[in-house]
Amino acid sequence: MQTNNHQLVDYDAVLDAKFGAKGTASRLEAEEKAYAFYTGQIIGVQGKKAKITQVGLARRIGSNRSYISRVESGQTEPKVSTFYRIMNALGCKIEFSMSL
Fold first, then answer.
1. Tell me: the pLDDT tens digits for 37-93?
2. Are 89 and 52 in contact (CB under 8 A)?
3. Can you give the pTM of this predicted structure?
4. Buried b (16+ CB within 10 A) or exposed e, 41-79
5. Count of other CB atoms within 10 angstroms of residue 4
6. What is the tens place of the pLDDT at every residue in 8-25?
């Protein structure tokens, strides 16, 4: 395992170097991929907690296992309506709040 010798790292600079500056097309694309991956991870973890297989989840939302697999791996990002159906099928509650 590689360490940074306990030195502080400016991760904004690291992200800028790897994906481009904020607002650039390459950075936006990387952020979209990260959100898709994160969404898939949430769905996968909640599926395991609920003890629901990909096949079982697919049946509950009227889809197929390969679609659920692509969502969980971050290859496909579900539409908002599908995300709600998935979360509902997993017994999850979605809450929104506004901060001023």
1. 999 999 999 999 999 999 999 999 999 999 999 999 999 999 999 999 999 999 999
2. yes
3. 0.78
4. ebbbebbeeeebebeebbeebebeeebbbbbbebebbbe
5. 7
6. 888 889 999 999 999 999
Identify the sign of the CA torsion 65, 70, 72, 78: negative
Q: 73: which 2 tokens? A: 């791996």
Contacts of 30 (CB under 8 A, 6+ apart): 18, 19, 20
54 CA to centre of own chain: 16
Residues in contact with 29: Cβ distance below 8 Å, sequence separation at least 6, in sequence order:
none
Using pLDDT thresholds of 50, 70 and 90, give the confidence band for residue 35: very high
Looking up tokens 């898709």 gives 36
CB-neighbour burial class of residue 89 (10 A; exposed 0-12, middle 13-18, buried 19+): buried
Give the pair of three-digit tokens for residue 98. Answer: 């506004």
